[in-house]
Design a protein that fits this description.
With 100 residues, the protein is mainly α. Helix content is 76%, strand content 0%. Substrate binds at residues 14, 31, 42, 91.
Length: 100
C-alpha cells in the first residue's frame, strides 16, 4: 500500500481506496463469523441477542480507539451502532431457529 501522500494521481488514489475497501469487507466477514458464534453461545446459555450494557461498552471502546487514531469518534460511533444493529438482528435470526 502506498501512503496517501505518495499517490500522484486519482487513479493511484482510487486503487488504494479500492484495496482498503476489499480489506474492510474481509474484516467485516470475519467479524460476522464471530457474531454467528456469539449467537450459538447465547442460544446455548439462554442469553438475549441485545445486551445493552455490552452495546455501550463496544461503542465506548470504538470511540476511544477512533480518538486515539485521529478519527472522528462520532463517525466511528455512528458506523458501529449500525454494525451493532445488524449484528443483533443476525443473532436474533439464529436465536429464533429451532435447530440445536
Amino acid at each position: 500500500m502506498r501512503e496517501p501522500k505518495d499517490c500522484e494521481n486519482m487513479e493511484q488514489l482510487r486503487a488504494e481506496i479500492d484495496t482498503l475497501d476489499a480489506e474492510l469487507i474481509k474484516t467485516l466477514r470475519i467479524r460476522a463469523r464471530y457474531i454467528d458464534r456469539a449467537a450459538e453461545i447465547k442460544k446455548r446459555d439462554g442469553l438475549a441477542a441485545n445486551i445493552p450494557v455490552r452495546v455501550e461498552e463496544v461503542v465506548g471502546n470504538v470511540r476511544r480507539l477512533a480518538e486515539g487514531e485521529g478519527l472522528s469518534p462520532d463517525l466511528a460511533e455512528n458506523l458501529w451502532r449500525e454494525l451493532i444493529r445488524w449484528s443483533i438482528a443476525r443473532e436474533e435470526v439464529h436465536l429464533n431457529t429451532t435447530k440445536e
